[in-house]
Amino acid sequence: MVTAIIGAGVMGEAILAGLIRAGRDASTILVGERRPDRGAELAQKYGVKVVPNVEAAVADTVLLAVKPQDLAATLIDIAPNLRAGQVLVSVAAGKSTAWIESQVPAGVAVVRAMPNTPALVGEGMAGLSRGSSVTDAQYAEAESLLSGSGQAIEIPEYQQDALTAVSGSGPAYVFYVVEAMVEAGVQLGLARDVATALVQQTLYGAATMLRETRTHPSVLREQVTSPGGTTAAALRKLDEHGVRAAFSSAMEACRDRSRELAQGS
Ligand SMILES: NC(=O)C1=CN([C@@H]2O[C@H](COP(=O)(O)OP(=O)(O)OC[C@H]3O[C@@H](n4cnc5c(N)ncnc54)[C@H](O)[C@@H]3O)[C@@H](O)[C@H]2O)C=CC1
Ligand SMILES: O=C(O)[C@@H]1CCC=N1
């Protein structure tokens, strides 16, 4: 079974790294990347073969990791080389299976997936949705592309825009919060490297508590919050600045942008 990754930028590399980490033989992976220097970099780093995207398109399973705005042109390029029975997995934000199916030969099994960048370190979270003609075996093959780099769940396609707002874009919100905490620590007089180390380990520890205790986050937050203490003073300020409401409206904007991308803009 040969797997191809067409578009090997941030996300394409994250999935490629996951496949290699999961034990997939590099000789069974083709990369179709239009930037020659980027292709050469990945060939050297992972031992995969880099080929023109039209050649990559003949693989048993083809993962498309180009920008949503580049997907139509990419499908026009590769459609003549696709055939019924192949599995085509797209990670392009907003792009529906129905639309992709309309661009490729009948019988190609289309799966829409929304991964995230922690896939690069084996801790990704991906949501997958089947198109109109995907067998269980074909779905399992698509899932194996993503599960090598973290967790993968199946969701109804109408929920893909919401999932994008939570886990697809979610790492960016976390990194944004980290930046804000480090800057605030520096403002409070800590050296930048000290503030960075404190924030990183705090994030890692809190994430590990969430995963290992399986306790509701509000309970974990209360454990930190002594009555009349320091944390209560900080949380009151976060509420005063509307941080919860800001997350709600940011994630609605993310969902809406995913819907707009479906229309091609
Ligand atoms: N970056 C992220 O956190 C996530 C991105 N995605 C989706 O993944 C896709 C890729 O995003 P990124 O990796 O961030 O973009 P990127 O810009 O880093 O990578 C896209 C790559 O595709 C290549 N490319 C474009 N057209 C091509 C073609 N016709 N043939 C061969 N190569 C071609 C580009 O040279 C580039 O290397 C997007 O559709 C995005 O919606 C999904 C989940 C998370
Ligand atoms: O920002 C974007 O459009 C992509 C999709 C999800 C994460 N990054």
Explained architecture:
This protein has about 260 residues and is of the alpha/beta class. It is about 55% helix and about 15% strand. The protein has 2 domains: about 160 residues, NAD(P)-binding Rossmann-like Domain (Rossmann fold); about 90 residues, ProC C-terminal domain-like fold. An 8-stranded mixed beta sheet has the order 3-2-1-4-5-6-7-8, with helices on both faces. Helix 7 crosses helix 12. Bound molecules: 1,4-dihydronicotinamide adenine dinucleotide and (2S)-3,4-dihydro-2H-pyrrole-2-carboxylic acid. The site of (2S)-3,4-dihydro-2H-pyrrole-2-carboxylic acid has 4 residues, from helix 7. The site of 1,4-dihydronicotinamide adenine dinucleotide (NAI) has 28 residues, from helix 1 and helix 4. It is found in: Cytoplasm. It is an enzyme of class 1 (oxidoreductase).
SSE layout:
Blueprint: E1 3-6, H1 10-21, E2 29-32, H2 36-46, E3 49-50, H3 53-56, E4 61-64, H4 68-78, E5 87-90, H5 97-103, E6 109-114, E7 124-130, H6 136-147, E8 150-154, H7 160-168, H8 170-187, H9 192-213, H10 217-224, H11 230-240, H12 243-262
Helix pairs in contact: 1-6, 7-12, 8-9
This protein binds 1,4-dihydronicotinamide adenine dinucleotide and (2S)-3,4-dihydro-2H-pyrrole-2-carboxylic acid (A1CAB).
Keywords: Amino-acid biosynthesis, Cytoplasm, NADP, Oxidoreductase, Proline biosynthesis
Pfam family, one: P5CR_dimer
Catalytic activity: L-proline + NADP(+) = (S)-1-pyrroline-5-carboxylate + NADPH + 2 H(+); L-proline + NAD(+) = (S)-1-pyrroline-5-carboxylate + NADH + 2 H(+)
